[in-house]
Write a structure and sequence with these properties.
The chain is mainly beta and 117 residues long. It is built from no helices and eleven strands. It has strands spanning 3-7, 10-13, 18-25, 31-37, 44-49, 56-58, 66-71, 76-81, 90-97, 106-107, 111-116. Strands 2, 4, 5, 6, 9, 10 and 11 form a seven-stranded mixed sheet that branches. It has a four-stranded antiparallel sheet with strand order 1-3-8-7, with no helix packed on it.
């Protein structure tokens, strides 16, 4: 049974940091990704990481500020978010992909990140 559970969201001031975690089960061998959806907007891709962690791909708007990592021994994927901006406010979703940068096969329930100005 596949389960993706995000945690670590919250309220932070602009310029601050948050670290999101995604506890994953049933997706051994999968690439993982983070997406986000701001109010009134479509869900957008943020970053993906391969199963080995050796390959990553970031959307331009977060490059240099966000860092994705994974610990396969702990079945957990992380998203370290630094220098947060109000426009980063969104619900952040963890996702599992059989193929790196392929279609999403499984979604988490999301965690809210709010950045105040």
């Amino acid at each position: 049974q596949v389960q993706l559970v995000e945690s670590g969201g919250g309220l932070v001031q602009a310029g601050g940091s948050l670290r999101l975690s995604c506890a994953a089960s049933g997706v051994r061998g999968y690439a993982m990704a983070w997406f986000r959806q701001a109010p009134g907007k479509e869900r957008e891709f943020v970053v993906a990481i391969s199963w080995s962690g050796g390959s990553t791909y970031y959307v331009d708007s977060v490059k240099g500020r966000f860092t994705v990592s994974r610990d396969n021994a702990k079945n957990t994927v992380y998203l370290q978010m630094n220098s947060l901006k109000p426009e980063d406010t969104a619900v952040y979703y963890c996702a599992a992909e059989k193929i790196f940068l392929g279609k999403v096969d499984y979604w988490g329930q999301g965690t809210q990140v709010t950045v105040s100005s």
